[in-house]
Design brief:
- The chain is mainly beta and 208 residues long.
- It is built from two helices and twelve strands.
- It has helices spanning 2-19, 24-29; strands spanning 34-40, 43-51, 57-63, 68-75, 78-86, 94-102, 114-124, 129-148, 151-164, 170-178, 183-187, 193-198.
- The chain has a twelve-stranded antiparallel β-sheet.
- The longest helix is centred in the N-terminal third of the chain and has 18 residues, at 2-19.
- It is globular, with a radius of gyration of 20 Å.
């Protein structure tokens, strides 16, 4: 009987380890893909980060409670292009965007204040196009090691003010940057809160 109990416990422990969705050591020491689930107020988002040793990455984000999926390509930490698909109709059904970023250094660590601008050249799902420039004023707030799920990771917090050159419209956002992941999450109404972190997940796909 005792031997059976020991064997059962061993099997249960092995099964739990196999099902463990996050490998903290892999996050810190390899380029393993990582999924972050987080929320900002009532908006729930998921980010999937695919990194490489060169400092380049591809980030998939599902946001607006699943109504928008975006794939962003980053070169040395700087956003270069993106594609979006959504549950909306018309021009916002999909888009392809090229970015020209001025004033942001390669592999920017977010640990200092920075002013920069981004010009977006977009082609929308209905065939229309648009070009716009947004100016950003980033303010560094804090940095340190924090618990992210069961993992202890470097976390850099900041805030940004943005202004559209075309419309003059302004906005404020809260950012949380993870240096080991080469990824940043953003909240519009408050600082985003991490709900989950995984290294085993189903890859995101565009919305049909």
């Amino acid at each position: 009987m005792m031997r059976f109990v020991v064997l059962l416990l061993a099997l249960l422990t092995s099964a739990a380890a196999a099902a463990e969705p996050v490998d903290c050591n892999a996050i810190e020491t390899t380029m393993a893909p990582v999924e972050l689930t987080y929320h900002d107020g009532d908006n729930s988002s998921v980010a999937q980060v695919y990194r490489d040793q060169s400092g380049n990455s591809v980030v998939w984000i599902k946001t607006l409670n699943g109504k928008l999926v975006a794939k962003g390509d980053f070169t040395a930490g700087v956003l270069a292009s993106a594609e979006t698909t959504s549950a909306f109709a018309g021009k916002l059904k999909s888009s392809k965007v090229k970015y020209n970023v001025e004033g942001m250094p390669r592999l920017f660590d977010r640990r200092s204040d920075l002013k920069y601008n981004i010009t977006h050249s977009s082609v929308y799902g209905d065939g229309s196009t648009g070009v716009s420039t947004t100016f950003y004023n980033y303010k560094f707030k804090s940095a340190g090691k924090e618990a992210v799920g069961p993992c202890i990771l470097d976390v850099v917090r900041g805030e940004s003010d943005a202004a559209s050159e075309k419309t003059g419209k302004t906005s404020h956002s809260y950012t949380v940057y993870f240096p080991q992941l080469m990824a940043q999450i953003t909240g519009k109404t408050a600082e985003p809160v991490i709900d989950d972190i995984k290294t085993k997940f189903d890859p995101m796909t565009p919305i049909p």
